[in-house]
Specification:
Layout lengths: L3 E5 L9 H18 L3 E4 L13 H10 L5 E8 L5 H14 L4 E6 L6 H8 L9 H12 L23 E5 L2 H10 L3 E3 L8 H10 L12 E9 L3 H19 L12 H4 L5 H10 L3 E4 L1 H15 L3 E5 L5 H15 L3
Amino acid sequence: MIPLSVLDLAPIVEGSTAAESLRHTLDLAQHAEAWGYRRYWLAEHHNMDGVACSATAVLVGHVAGGTKTIRVGSGGVMLPNHAPLVIAEQFGTLATLYPGRIDLGLGRAPGTDQMTARALRQHLDRHEDAFPQDVVELQSYLADPDPAQPGQPVRAIPGMGTQVPIWLLGSSTYSAQLAAYLGLPFAFASHFAPEMLLQALDIYRRTYRPSDAWPKPHAMVGINVVAADTDEQAAWLFTSIQQRFLGMQRGQRGPLPRPIDPVVMETLWNPREKAGVQRMLTCTAVGGPATLRQQLAAIVEQTGADELIAAGAIHDHAARLHSYELLAAVGRSL
């Protein structure tokens, strides 16, 4: 049985609000805990009408406070937007409140456009090139105090000694190489950028340097999942994701669209756009339980994933819950 986790962008759907989205996030997390999911991660995005997870640490605390056992974390915090000390204090506080349940996934992209990135940072001098140094600095704040440096001048309080597990996230080989070098677990964002998935996993495993916390490499693969009782129902629900990705191709953002007839979907895009959407959604499983099992088994066999993390942007909340319930049942048989 391969471990399954949830990746939630707190989607704001057409006809709804951010407040309702956040209520649905907690409800899904509580159900995911009952269904046996290992982790519930929330992603940092900014200035996007269709997602409500901009204040990631706040939302992690909200979900952790409303659940009891499931691990809750970031998938991920975009570290260039923040000072490492601030993130160490935020997640150190979370780990103090919810010991043994907090994960810290880190990405090096801004998670938004350049204008918004400037508003977040006030300036863009803090570049992605500083990411390795920022990760190491962040590790030092969360580590046990160094007896060789009893007077460490800057400390994260809370944070110091919590040893919050750090994951590196990426959609290229860069973070795979860094995760291997630092002996950290690695999650690939193949739910929207699958092109370099296999190459990144190969580099990560082949060059991995064992660490005390992670003696072996651990690779998580991001996937999109839309499950329903029948293949036809799932295909209909899936058109919401297809419309969203088509909008991304066209530079259009907005709330998650309502599903439409798949036949109508074919009239919305030209061949180039359709190919682009299909390419971005390569790591996707859509269908009833039997179809889902086949698709997931193929992904696991191809990638050798140690864990799968599933994003499931579905317009109707009840259908989204049902999708994750079906996925949990299928996952127990993989």
